[in-house]
Inverse folding.
């Protein structure tokens, strides 16, 4: 039983997520960003001029949980805050030129990470693996325990 648990899919997933996080942080270090901050840049690149609440909703976290990340990113010059033209109480956040330039570098980091992850796999195996991951994601989203939880996931893209 102990050996079965050692290699259970959920434990392996947790280990992979941990390793991916470590490797992502290593690769993103050159930009002074963490993986979550890179996700914010991508979100702003796609939607532009979002409030903190809207960013949080798009990436699936609570608004307070990204406060520190946004402050650091603003201090680094990756994002800017501007008052909403229609409602001065709302602050809109968007990428600066530096933030937009950084996105292509981050895409390269993501490609490097995937090359490491998929090393030794055939293209057909990678496609099957991706399809299986998407199925697992859908199964989890459709489970009764997820009832009432946001079920919209950002689309997966190829770079």
């Amino acid at each position: 039983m102990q050996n079965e648990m050692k290699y259970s899919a959920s434990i392996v997933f947790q280990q992979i997520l941990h390793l991916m996080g470590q490797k992502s942080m290593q690769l993103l270090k050159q930009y002074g960003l963490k993986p979550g901050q890179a996700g914010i840049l991508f979100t702003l690149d796609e939607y532009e001029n979002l409030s903190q609440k809207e960013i949080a909703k798009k990436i699936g976290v609570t608004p307070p949980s990204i406060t520190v990340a946004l402050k650091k990113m603003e201090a680094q010059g990756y994002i800017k805050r501007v008052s909403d033209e229609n409602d001065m109480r709302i602050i809109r956040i968007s990428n600066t030129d530096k933030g937009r330039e950084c996105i292509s570098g981050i895409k390269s980091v993501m490609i490097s990470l995937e090359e490491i992850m998929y090393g030794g796999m055939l293209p057909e195996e990678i496609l099957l693996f991706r399809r299986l991951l998407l199925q697992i994601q859908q199964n989890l989203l459709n489970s009764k325990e997820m009832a009432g939880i946001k079920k919209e996931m950002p689309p997966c893209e190829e770079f």
Q: What stands out?
A: The first strand starts at residue 79 and ends at 83. Residues 97-117 form the longest helix (21 residues). The mean pLDDT is 87.
